[in-house]
Amino acid sequence: MNRPRLLIANRGEIAARIIRACRDLGVSPVAVFSDADRTSLHVRLADAAVHIGPPPARESYLVPEKLIAAAKKTGATFIHPGYGFLAENAAFAQMVIDAGLVWVGPSPGSISAMGSKTASRAKVMAAGVPIVPGMTTPAKDAAEVVAFGEKNGYPLLLKAAAGGGGKGMRVVRSAGEVPAAFARAQSEAKSYFADPAVYAELFVEKSRHVEIQVLGDQTGRIIALGERECSLQRRHQKVLEECPSAAVTPELRARMEKVAVAAARAVDYVSAGTVEFLLAKDGRFFFLEMNTRIQVEHPVTEVVYGVDLVAEMIRIARGEPMSIEMRLEPRGHALQCRIYAEDPARGFAPSPGKIRRLRRPQGPGVRVDSGVEEGDVVPLDYDAMLAKFVIWGKDRDEAIRRARRALGEARVEGIETTIPFFLAMLEDPEFLANDVSTQFLDGWTYQAATETEEQQSAALVAGALDAFERAQGSRPAASGGAGTAGLSPWRTARPTFGVRS
Amino acid sequence: MNRPRLLIANRGEIAARIIRACRDLGVSPVAVFSDADRTSLHVRLADAAVHIGPPPARESYLVPEKLIAAAKKTGATFIHPGYGFLAENAAFAQMVIDAGLVWVGPSPGSISAMGSKTASRAKVMAAGVPIVPGMTTPAKDAAEVVAFGEKNGYPLLLKAAAGGGGKGMRVVRSAGEVPAAFARAQSEAKSYFADPAVYAELFVEKSRHVEIQVLGDQTGRIIALGERECSLQRRHQKVLEECPSAAVTPELRARMEKVAVAAARAVDYVSAGTVEFLLAKDGRFFFLEMNTRIQVEHPVTEVVYGVDLVAEMIRIARGEPMSIEMRLEPRGHALQCRIYAEDPARGFAPSPGKIRRLRRPQGPGVRVDSGVEEGDVVPLDYDAMLAKFVIWGKDRDEAIRRARRALGEARVEGIETTIPFFLAMLEDPEFLANDVSTQFLDGWTYQAATETEEQQSAALVAGALDAFERAQGSRPAASGGAGTAGLSPWRTARPTFGVRS
Amino acid sequence: MKLRARLPASGPKGDVRLEVAHGAPSFRVQLDGRTLAGEAAVFRPGIWSLVFEDGRQIEVSLEPASDGALRVQFGSAILTFDLQDELTALALVSSGRGKTKRADVVAAAMPGRVLKLMVAPGDVVASGQPILVLEAMKMENEVKAPREGVVESVVVAAGQAVSAGEILIRLKSDG
Amino acid sequence: MKLRARLPASGPKGDVRLEVAHGAPSFRVQLDGRTLAGEAAVFRPGIWSLVFEDGRQIEVSLEPASDGALRVQFGSAILTFDLQDELTALALVSSGRGKTKRADVVAAAMPGRVLKLMVAPGDVVASGQPILVLEAMKMENEVKAPREGVVESVVVAAGQAVSAGEILIRLKSDG
Asked: What is the pLDDT of chain C when averaged over all its residues?
């Protein structure tokens, strides 16, 4: 077998995704696994697999030496880091290169240049990329704040220079409010932090998280592939992504793409990367950071633009030019629902365990990227994402309707998932009207869909019939051991997590 | 529940496909089932289901009265026939309409106008649609044949007017060959059929089957949505379809689309339909027939043009204009592999039974439309198609590479499938060079991929380990009853179907 | 066969009487006196397709929940309830075990590792007060007291791995 | 544990000796004297992941074929072979049952319905001669004689439904 080999320094969904790209390119994929992943799908799909240690990531997936040794053992000449783990670790990228292997990603220099939030902002500012306007030194007086507001617009945020944690911050909506607010902020800053210094920064209300996909190759070409709308976040984790963003016009897209390419060019970017922006309601946008890796949400761009970003990364790492020759136009609309092994009815508590049944949705407009199949165990030790449902429709409305259909068709048993959460969210009027911001989910409470009277009756009848058949001994019972356990005794005390419905 | 209900007068894959379109449109799907399909996927996905009789189709899926009664019982106001069964039965369509229900398809008049091969050809000829040139009366002499050849080109086929079954046919490649061939053909015709009458028809060598998708709505608008290449056929059954056809240039596509729309217009066509053509190597094309229904291969058009043909059919049946407003351009290339429960190693013998394991492929470019899931039984009584793997790539090469990946990722246990056949065919140099015709598979012998030495060793080792673990009583054995049956005794006589490898 | 189901909803819907007059395939079940009939078939163990007399079809998956209840999934909704044949239910009720008492135990809602213990035996806790931190899937989950009361015993130690349903802490019984 | 495998291929590869020196997870198996070692794990009953010492990974699915052999699927290929522990194999061989004899029975390769019988007891048939027609999935399948010989008995009747592996016709033994 003389096909080149590529080692995937990752697990789960992204490892399976990279394995598929390898196969499409005639590259032989090599997996690594901890004790918790011995029979995981990414291992069973690979041509070779190397054990790298016990379940904790710090003893397995995060140990550079083990990963490089695994590549050496199996003759892999490429290493793809996926996302998470060591994907944005410049030192690991350098170790890979120093070991004579090819790193499938941007150069260690690009990674570290974008790795520091402050240094990266300075770097891209020099390239003309807008960042959120703010004073770089404390304001001497209210007049200086008014001047800043004059230049950058309102509302402003007054912040204690020595502060943090939201304390001493005040929103100012017009020049008239400045003098009183400045005085109050100074006095609060003094009492909280023993330092009255206060500065002003633009306050971007109801902003969106919109990011631009970029791709650079070793010929120095860098292109942008439109935006992704990622405003729906829970605990700063993206939950649902869209491409395109309904808030972005073609004209705005062109401007954001131009700026994103400039940011990438500022660090001589090669491979797939993402420039994240904060988009204000008035159409202004500001650089947040650049992610120097493939992102979880890359498939929405793939299905709308008709590209394979992971395959392009491998081509580019081989020294080939990217295979995208012409400017691509977006077609239709895509949504990605990240299906997690979490129970939305219990505050999204993790729900690891064995997947006793898995019905993946299928049919028109449905792409599923998952790292599990029926019989797999979702381990406790890693990120709990099971699958990504990537749904395409000719417009946002069709994509949403198809997403509901796909989520309703899916079945997962043995563990709880966030599928019911998405089914509820896809009915939310503000979401449907695309009236969202990064704060949207903060003020949103999950309410399980209530079963209809008819559904409740059906559930009770099915339970009764199953019990009846078991009592007759003539039929298989509910899966997973109820057959031996028999009917449950009344529980004397409900567990603390209470009732689920 | 006041959503309109639609009854699907079909089963299996297409029933599941139509159910998905219903859900996308907010329509409530109603299934019908024979005894053989009680727990089939299409039943379990539906909102309502009606039993319509014993397994034989002529006692269930082919009985119009039962289907109409099922619609009445469940309050369904629409009937979608799918493909096969009663899909092109004008009398059934009329019965549905007479019962006050809406037929999701073309009018009974359009169905019967296209139902007769000869009448439909006459009808479309009048609309200027080309059919294969042929003499309509026997040739008086060789000179008349030469004159025909002068007008229509060579090669010609000389056929016995009273003949059939290929007997007495002769191919003539130039005017010089005509006299001798004509005399021979006459004498053969006389000896075979006691009638020397012979006529000439254009012989379209190495022709392709290329078809145009059309869509008409009740406003009278009819559009074409490009072509599908369906030359790969076995026993006149399509096996693998592509969109677009690598043999069709944009200029030829435009001409074929124009002719197809003219053919559809000749019968005032409403709904989705397909105009089938024979495409000669020199670019000439000739009408074969029009299929007045949705086709098995419709998804390749859907993924390349970004449309939902089944949803359009339902919209159109509701009296709405089609939702396709602008002219659509094809993007990329799609293949469809029809996965059948047939054993390619035994001459494609049917392989019904219970699906003990099913791993459907997933990931980029892969759409699966199937009518089964793990645990389903493939009944003996119907068409053995399990699933359609619809694979999209940015070009034909990428689509083929992804198709290989998807086929290799799939696992089906409990029954045999045509997956190994497709894996072999997708390596055929002539197929890869797109050097195909409708005769391609006639001269093609399936040769199972031979396992490598390493694979063979692995299979033997796994078998030995499984036996060892079973002997120890410590591990689960091979699924499906081997655990109780123990190791197989040497078989004293191999069954007649012999060896599989 | 007579059964009793206890649904999570409060109110008159909480307890339901079921009687199976006829099982699959042609079922007839009384539900609080109302008769539901149709045709039922098992697709795979625990997965039923019910077709009611009016044609309505529903695929229902049954599996035991980690706390011993029955978890029933159908389309977009999940319903969890207790189900018991009537004699057993009556016996349990008469022995006092059938009443819904206030929780005396705090169990792990998921497998994880105990990161931190915030209470000791004898501590008075308020309802909703964090009592320990359970790490699962890289996330720290605060476990809270289900009611006010006094900690009777702490069953687990910091650093210990626990499985779902495992008892973590006991509260002194209030009755 | 010593085993013998009989592969469909003719030649020296046809019979293979296997010896399991050590089972899962750290396996060591002798295959015609060559040692293969690595790490093996069961994903689901009958589905194994093998990782050989050089890192090569292969997912192998085992299931009994309808004719009692073992059907092994791995990626694009399917291999079917007989597997027997050595003592049993030797016993069968010494009793004459282990030899690959010429087929005395014609079995149904798939479930179906017998449409037509073309031979009767006593008929002399040539190898490859159609002897009956089996209908399955709307297709008619001609079943042919596996060898020349004399029909001993016709086990099935026209119209009868048969399952896979069911014996249809017996030929007189030739030895």
From this structure: 82
Instruction: Please tell me whether the peptide bond between B179 and the residue prior to it is cis, using omega within 30 degrees of 0.
Output: no
Q: Would you give the DSSP letter of residue A12? A: H
Distance from C-alpha of A425 to C-alpha of A429, rounded to nearest angstrom = 9
Q: Please, which residues have CB within 8 angstroms of residue B325's CB and are 6 or more apart in sequence?
A: none
Q: What are phi and psi of A267, to 5 degrees?
A: -120, 20
Q: What pLDDT is recorded for position B484?
A: 31
The residue among A52 and D152 whose pLDDT is bigger is: A52
Res D165: pLDDT:
74
Task: Check if the beta carbon of residue A484 is closer than 8 Å to that of residue C40.
Answer: no
D24 shares contact with chain A (CB less than 8 Å): no
**What are the residues whose beta carbons fall under 8 Å from the beta carbon of C154, sequence distance 6 or more?**
C117, C119, C120, C121, C168, C169
Chain D residue numbers touching A74 (CB-CB < 8 A): 54-55
CB D45 within 8 A of CB B478: yes
| Residue in D68, D111, D146 closest to B496 by CB | D146
Give the pLDDT band of residue B31 (cuts 50, 70, 90): very high
CB contact under 8 A, C41 and B45: no
**What is the total residue count of chain C?**
175
At residue B448, the pLDDT reads 81
- Angle of helix B309-317 relative to helix B12-25, nearest 10 degrees, comes to 60
Q: How far is Cα of residue A287 from the mean position of the Cα atoms in its chain? A: 18
Task: Mark yes or no for CB contact D31/B460 under 8 Å.
Answer: yes
Tell me how far apart the alpha carbons of residues C120 and C108 are, in angstroms, rounded to a whole number: 17
Q: Give just the sign of the alpha carbon dihedral C42, C46, C47, C50.
A: positive
CB distance A43–D55 less than 8 Å? no
User: Is the complex ipTM more than 0.90?
Assistant: no
- Determine the residue among A383, A455, A460 to mutate to test chain C binding: the one whose Cβ has the most chain C Cβ atoms within 10 Å: A460
What is the average pLDDT value for chain A, to the nearest integer?
91
pLDDT at B61 over 60: yes
Nearest partner of A325 among A213, A223, A218, A212, judged by Cα = A223
Nearest to C109 among A349, A380, A449 (CB): A349
Alpha-carbon gap, residue A107 to A97, rounded angstroms: 9
Catalytic, out of B234, B284, B293, B315 = B293
| Residues C43, B45: C-beta atoms closer than 8 Å | no
Q: Which residues in D lie closer than 8 A to residue A51 (C-beta atoms)?
A: 39, 51
Question: CA-CA distance, C84 to B343, in Å (whole number)?
Answer: 48
> Contacts of residue C59 in chain B, CB cutoff 8 Å?
44-45
In the block, tokens 């009018």 appear at: B107
Confidence band of B188 (pLDDT split at 50, 70, 90): confident
Helix, strand or coil for residue A187? helix
Rounded alpha-carbon distances, angstroms, from residue A231 to A187, A243, A428, B263: 35, 12, 15, 50
Q: Per-residue pLDDT for A38 more than 80?
A: yes
Q: At what angle do helices A178-193 and A142-152 cross, to 10 degrees?
A: 120
Of B352, B462, B468, the CB nearest to D62: B462
CB-CB under 8 Å, B366 with A24: no
Q: In angstroms, what separates the C-alpha of B65 from chain A's closest C-alpha?
A: 29
Q: pTM for the whole thing? A: 0.86
Mean pLDDT of the C50-61 span: 96
The answer to whether B138 and B277 have CB atoms below 8 angstroms apart is no
Residue B375 has its nearest CB partner, among C41, C43, C55, at C43
Distance between CA atoms of C53 and D32, rounded to whole angstroms? 64
Look up A293 and say whether it is catalytic.
Answer: yes
pLDDT band at B306 (very low <50, low <70, confident <90, very high): very high
Say if B370 is an interface residue toward chain A (CB within 8 Å): yes
Write down the pLDDT at residue B485: 34
